[in-house]
Amino acid sequence: MATERPRLRVVFDTNVVVAALKSRSPHSPTNELLQHWQAGEFDLLYSADLRAEYEDKFTARAIDPLRSQAFLSRLEAFGIRVEVPNVDPVIEADPDDDIVLACAVSGIATHLVTYDPHFLPLGEEYRGIRIVNGLNFLYLVRGDTPPQT
């Protein structure tokens, strides 16, 4: 008898969402991650601060306003909003990243998905939260084995 894995609780760093929304390919790994979320394959966590950070990055990166608003509307409708009582300073190189980490900690995330090298000093795990890049998380969601490097 197969055992069912626990439901994945995930926080996407802003760079993952920006990459998906800037991509012109519906088959890009980051777009595929959004499709898996929208299909209900994992829970996407966000906080008020992280939502505001998404919005700021979308504007700064000149993301199509229609795509930006569509994502934010889906996030509010289908994401899980997490209350973050405090944001501890952890990532010295970029304090804005502390918002992402605080959301993951407060939401008891299983995974934090990022391409940001500022998270590297934390290693592959922080307080039980796996820190992975988008491609490795996609392999996990698909149930694939990542290629050996």
Question: How are the elements arranged and paired?
Answer:
Blueprint (H helix, E strand, L loop, with lengths): L8 E4 L1 H9 L6 H10 L4 E4 L1 H13 L4 H14 L1 E2 L15 H10 L4 E3 L11 E2 L2 E4 L1 H9 L7
Helix pairs in contact: 1-2, 1-3, 2-6
How many domains make up the 3D coordinates? 1
CATH architecture group name: 3-Layer(aba) Sandwich
Helix and strand content put the structural class at alpha/beta
How much of the residues is beta strand, in percent? Answer: 5-15%
Helix proportion range: 40-55%
Could you characterize what this model shows?
This protein is an alpha/beta fold and 149 residues long. The chain has a single domain, classed as 5'-nuclease (Rossmann fold), CATH 3.40.50. It is built from six helices and six strands. The protein has a six-stranded mixed β-sheet with strand order 3-2-1-4-6-5, sandwiched between helices. A hairpin with a 2-residue loop joins β5 and β6. The termini are far apart.
Summarize the structure.
The protein is 44% helix and 13% strand.
What structural keywords apply?
149 residues; 6-stranded mixed beta sheet; globular; 13% strand; Rossmann fold; alpha/beta
